[in-house]
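Page 47, continued from p. 46.
Same chain as before, 272 aa.
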Amino acid sequence: MPRKQLRNGQRSREAEPITLARELSGRLMRAILEGTYASGSRLPTERELAEVFGMTRTVVREALKRLEALGLIRIRQGSGIYVEDFQLTSGIELFDVLLASEDGTVNLRFLRDVIEFRGHMVRIIVRLAAARRTPEELAAIRKMVYERRTCPGGMEQLDELNIGLFRAIAEAAHNQVYRLVFNTMGRIYVKLRGLYDTPLLGFEQTQTLFERLLEAFEQQDDAMAELLIIRYTEALRKTLGFDAQTSGFMELAASHEQPGSESLSPHSKERL
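Result:
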């Protein structure tokens, strides 16, 4: 028994530097992203960082390794630690840090970019899914849409249903790249829906979107599926106070000539 307690204590002591390194890497990461340490500049040395943050050099070294793995810094032996341009070297791992400032306020510019990107990606995926879905995939999507309507649990259970539904739609697109994109972005999309879509637009409006998408999938009406996403994204942007006119595809969404509207079926036009 004492041996077991000792081992637990050892694990606790071993875990402490890891926790401290994660905390320090988070603080340095935010300082880099917010411009305190500019791209191309040299960070203080390990010893100087240890003194400034009151941590051991072992903890600092581990934190720097984390930042290097994220593409935020480059460690040059014998030269120093240099800040990289994160917009050229980093990936979606920075999402949470970029979305919120250190004081907890939302970075609206980044949120706008994320919603625009999500709108572009999802409209392509649903259009492909509507055209390519199999009867079995349609049945699976239908089942989850109905389960979502009657979901008895809280947000956690709803999030899991959303993830399953998004995955089923991505798989119905029958494009391996979009499946891989879902693996990277799926939980971020669900997080956004929980933080912004549902609180701002309400459960009914988001549920209605899924039910209307289901109708489009049943009729294999790819233009209708895409148009539903365009209008949903536009409604969310307006609720957030973002300007409806942006570069790229979103300008088409704000115009009267909706992309693909000329190919909508008569039934779809009536629904609009």
